Amino acid sequence: MSLNSSFRKEAEDLVKEQMAAYDPSHDWLHVDRVRRQALKIAREEVSQGKTVDIELVELAALFHDIGDAKFHKEGQPTGREVVMTFLSRFNYEKADLVASIVENVSFRKELAGIRNDWAESCIELHIVQDADKLDAIGAFGIMRCASYSGYKNRPLYDPAEEAQLNITYEQYQAQTKANTGCAINHFHEKLFRLKDMMKTPAAIKMAQKRHDVMMEFVKQIEEEYSMDE
After folding, report:
1. Does domain 5-226 have CATH number 1.10.3210.50?
2. Any idea where the HD/PDEase domain is (predicted)?
């Protein structure tokens, strides 16, 4: 089942309004890419005999960055609250499930290592997680990393700053709060890890090419800085 046009339009308008407060790495165009990627993965899963709620995937992908912790300010409604308020207007019966997926999409949540039976088995969650990760790597991932670093006024490359390999949830939280780190370190700390965190067969296949693009990019950066070209 897919969303009807008027419902989809209102959902898109809400997302555009929410994303207008974010930087270009988390704008409406990012959300739309994740939505399209999620639907592509979902259809691939269906073609392999899996049961997938396509409507749920699309809604969760559309709303996945609402209330993003990187942009959320004290006193603002949470992503769950925004999503539930919107969907209650339509008496949407799976509103709580959409909100639960939105709450669990981020790398930050996966890094925290909080596991439960639902998160381990919900294929719609896995699809949206994978779609979001795919947009964080490859060519778009490179541009998004640079964009967010500029937004946070972080260095693009600081050779004096060592990357925190195998960064923990606590280290990631502390780094975010202190607004430290540089763009190239973000590849070593997070982006290079995403390939091995994919959960659906389609995303696993797509991730390798994008991973290789990033590896080549970082290698070129290091060569240019060292002037060993």
Report:
1. yes
2. 23-146
